[in-house]
Amino acid sequence: MSQLSRRDFLKVAGAAFVSVLSPRSLSSFRLDAGRKPNIIIILWDAFSARHLSLFGYPRLTTPNVDAFAERSTVFHAHYSGSNYTTCGTASMLTGMLPWKHGAINYDGLVRSEFVRSNPYTLLGPEYHRFAFSQNPWPDRLMGQYYGDVDRFLPPSAYSLLGDDGARILENDRAIASVALDSFLFSTQGGNAPIGSPVLGYLNKSRVLNFTDRQKSDSYSKGVPQVMNMNYLFPFRNEMVYGGVYSEISRLESEAPPYFAYFHLYSPHYPYRPRNDFRRLFRDDYRPIVKPSHPLSAGLHEDFILTQRTLYDRQIAQIDAEFGRLIASLDETGVLENSYLIFTSDHGEMFERGFVGHGFQFMYEPVLQIPLMIHAPGQAQRNDIHTPTSNIDLLPTLLSIAGREIPPDVDGRILPGFGGAVDEDRPIISMVATENSAFGPMKKAVISMRKRAYKLIAYPGYDGMDQAFELYDLENDPEELENLAAGDGKRLAQMKDELFGYLDAANRPFAGK
Amino acid sequence: MKLLNRIVERFPDRQSIRNVFAVIVTLVYSWTLFTSFYKLPSWMFYLNSKEIASVYAYFFVFDFLDSVLLLAVVLLLEMTLFLFVGKKDEFQARSMMVVLVLLGFSMARLALFQDYEDIGTFLSSELPWVGLTALIGIPLALVVPGIRWLGGALEGFADRAVILMFIYIPLSFISFVVVLFRNLN
To answer: What residues pair up with A450 in beta bridges, in sequence order?
Structure first.
């Protein structure tokens, strides 16, 4: 009988350990040997993990997502790099923190030196790469590497208005979108009228009149619309999810292996659920009333609750669409050879006198987002409780596809997919819309979660510079008790650490 | 045949069309530039100077289209609504009045209704606004050419606008090349 040498033992043990950590170790991984898996990302814009019934939300908002979770890896403490679309999505797509990728302004772009850090370029032509974002801001981000996307649908695809004809400018998608979508034909609010007084006016009138005519027996309050201040596309989620399914079917038959990213607008504001969902949640649920934030509009609690309920109804509707989509994908066997990733770009907040996302609020409902990853053929649920960030998604995708992870990437491979659990890792999120992308970060709201504690800092904000917030999320998940005054030692430690990272991030801009 | 003869007879001369076009170009391009200054500070946060110049290239191309479209509307009105009223040599003053009223209508509404919350008001007020614009615009277009000092002032404005047109239009052609180049690459 042969004896195992110490070296052989270590080799076998090492291989076994790697196989335990790797995605292929998932008991139900059924992908054919040698074939690259398809990767599908379905992102719901502005979906807070705090509204998932799976995570204990008192309303049954997401029965279908919950069912999907039963055969996925579920991340219980997953955070966005920011609290609004551009910055959160850029963090996910680049695998970098906002102070590095630079897409920190509302409709900003990734710094040119980091544009190549994205799944499309890094997965390479081995994958057929598909992109669709209903929200024009991520569309603009992906427009920065248009040449690496094999099929790129415009935001207006699957809308009730149909294709807007912007395809003729798709080779210059990012800049054309700034000029046309955010200025000449629409605005993003902020006291800036539309720049084109003839075609711009006619377009605005056409879109609004068309949208108004969409009020029907099934949508008595009107259909959802992209974007709320931009007067862009009215749509119906039934159509959008039908489009997603037909696109996946097309990719499945024509171009495997493929990478497909669907950035879907609902449940983003304006919340306009279909009538059959408007009757849901007429209940006694009253969330904890939290003190108004000094920078919030101080909205009335009744209004906040009404908006929350509308949001929950919108979620319930898209959960039903999601359920139908998953059933179709099951039926056609797509999930047998594909990773299906379900996530969001940022959350939504209904508390502290504020409704929505963005601005200076970095509380859990707006930062904590869902992440569920279904591996090919996976049948068992796997729960990951350690805090993770959406900057981890890119390295995880690259690892799944067997591609190299560039050294610039800040994210790590997710636990459960080959990555190690690191409880001491700080999870950083920030919003810095009033800061230049070309200079050091001087004005921002930054949050850092480390283990159970979370620090929120407001560097550069008049009167808020020294207003730190420190929460113990394990014992106070609603962030009600600010420990900054009472736990000076922990505050000092976390401040030193956070500002150390900020100084390091600002170093390349020294002298600017 | 009689109608065709009338159209040929009343069709404005090239210089008058050029002057009206100059006024349109001046107003349309200036509006775009003016409104762009609201956005420029935020663009400077994340676009470099080359990208900002490219954004302006798109503006100038679309402003040219806006201007041509509006000129077509003005000529159409002249050949229909105003075909049997007024005189041919009053075209310039009349059309400039039409341009001022139409652009004033559009710009005022764009400036007044910017927010999502305004959508209902925007839609419900559209017909009254259009009606009011026609009610004010048509009589003004008929009366103004007869008021000598006002007609003269408008023509003076047109003469000066021609200078701006000779700046804006070449800029549009350069912009067209820039846009074409960016989209061919």
So the answer is: A453
Q: How many CA atoms lie within 13 A of A218 on its CB side?
A: 8
Of the two residues A177 and A90, the one the predictor is more confident about is: A90
DSSP state of B146: G
| Closest-CA residue of chain B to A185 | B62
**What six digits make up the tokens of A102?**
């630079």
Considering A20-24, A253-257, A324-328, B150-154, the range whose residues carry the highest mean pLDDT is A324-328
Q: Tokens for A198?
A: 């003839």
For A99, the enclosing helix (H) or strand (E) is helix A98-101
Chain A residues with CB-CB distance to B185 below 8 A:
171-172
Q: A427-512 is classed in which CATH architecture? A: 2-Layer Sandwich (3.30)
What is the CATH architecture assignment of A6-419?
3-Layer(aba) Sandwich (3.40)
Q: In chain B, positions 70-109, which contact chain A (CB-CB < 8 Å)?
A: 70, 103, 106-107, 109
* Mean pLDDT value across residues A19-46: 67
The Cα B137–Cα B142 span in angstroms is 9
Chain A closest CA to B62's CA: distance in Å? 8
Q: Structure pTM?
A: 0.90
E strands, A279-409, in order: 338-344, 349-351, 354-356, 371-374, 382-384, 388-389
Task: Say if the Cβ atoms of B36 and A183 lie within 8 Å.
Answer: yes
CB under 8 A, 24+ apart: contacts of A420-427: A420/A21, A421/A386, A422/A386, A423/A386, A423/A451, A424/A450, A424/A451, A425/A387, A425/A450, A426/A450, A426/A497, A426/A498, A426/A501, A427/A79, A427/A387, A427/A388, A427/A389
Q: Enumerate the CATH 3.30.1120.10 domain ranges in chain A, comma separated.
A: 427-512
Nearest-by-Cβ selection for B59 from A190, A195, A436: A195
The CATH 3.40.720.10 domain(s) of chain A lie at 6-419
Which residue of A112, A176, A436 is in closest CB contact with B58?
Answer: A176
